[in-house]
Amino acid sequence: VKLKHYAPAVLKETDMEVKSSEITLEVEEGSQDVLVKNFYLSCDPYMRHRLTGLDYSHHPSFKIGQVLEGFGVSKVVESANPNFKPGDYVSSWTKWEEYSVIPKGERLTIIDPSFAPLSYYLGALGMPGFTAYVGIYEILKPKKGETIFVSAASGAVGQMVGQLAREAGLYVVGSAGSQEKIDLLRNKLGYDAAFNYKEEEDHVAALKKYCPRGIDMYFENVGGKTLDAVIDNMNPFGRIAVCGLISQFGKEKKDGVSNLYKFISARITMQGFLQSDHLHLMPKFMELMAGYLKANKLVYFEDFADGLDNAPNAFCRMLSGSKIGKQIITIAKD
Ligand code: NDP
């Protein structure tokens, strides 16, 4: 799957194209390279920045004609690297293609297929789950009994935030874009309350209603008018972890914050973060997840698109919210 046109404002499926080309299924001896067969590819919002032709984020834009790349789950086919052997399952930084040569085997990690479904390494046990963990424990530092509000609550990150927050003894409130998602949040994902932000005219009033004791912590995934309404409802010494601002994607003029004074009167702290600054905590996170899996506590919803031909559509569905849970592209299975 290649980038066909830059899409600074609105991304369309036709801005990407699927092309066939032949590659040699071998690696050069002594190169340290690893040939992998890709099983699952991850659709992640940050990739949207890479389709704009603009270099305003910390992720450089793809070039026209470049094959898209991102997180994947793959199986080693051939290896010139002593750390990997054919048959190993790996979480990978790979290309949106059937087979990829990973130069020097960089960013490959061997994973255990008996631990959890392989696709979980792109979501619950992968970058999105880890993002939820970092945001909650490193940035927000919750105290039992506090109220946390989470936007894009049913997504790849949000569903993990909800479960971690519930385990931390918090009152957990979320918003998402459909009734089906609200039902999942309430009935399956441990949220105490949830609402469809598309059906609430007055976000300040909605938050007052669903967070009756005010908001102590906000896990920010969307920005825009949601952020403004949250600030109005923040309790003294409230904390905001700025994880993502998906409502601002493609906007030439980004929304600002109208009620900055509330930061002073309520002594609010707001901190942006990148999960990649905290990778030393990955073993601790995986240990926690192992406990959740063992206790049958982890619930995770995934939405699978079938094959590379459907990849451009899957990526647009992820951005628009038409999918449920973590958006994944299936390329192959064992
Ligand atoms: P999701 O699986 O949640 O997918 C994105 C969802 O955002 C959509 O499905 C949609 O769901 C919602 N959305 C889209 N547009 C809007 C809008 N205008 N207003 C409100 N909601 C909207 O994505 P992830 O869980 O993977 O990522 C969530 C956020 O976390 C993103 O902002 C991403 O950039 C950020 N992120 C940051 C990281 C970091 O290190 N800081 C790492 C990983 C992710 P809905 O139906 O609810 O509208």
Automatic annotation (TrEMBL):
Q: What is this protein called?
A: Enoyl reductase (ER) domain-containing protein
SMART domains attached to this UniProt entry: PKS_ER
Domain Enoyl reductase (ER) positions: 49-329
Recorded hits in CDD domains, A to Z, give: double_bond_reductase_like (cd08295)
Family annotation (Pfam families): ADH_N_2, ADH_zinc_N
Can you provide one Gene Ontology molecular function annotated for this UniProt record? Answer: oxidoreductase activity, acting on the CH-CH group of donors, NAD or NADP as acceptor
Q: Which PANTHER family match?
A: PROSTAGLANDIN REDUCTASE, PROSTAGLANDIN REDUCTASE 1
Going by the UniProt record, its keywords in alphabetical order are:
Oxidoreductase
Q: Which InterPro entries match?
A: ADH-like_C, ADH_N_2, ER, GroES-like_sf, MDR_fam, NAD(P)-bd_dom_sf
What is the native source organism of this protein? Ceratodon purpureus (Fire moss)
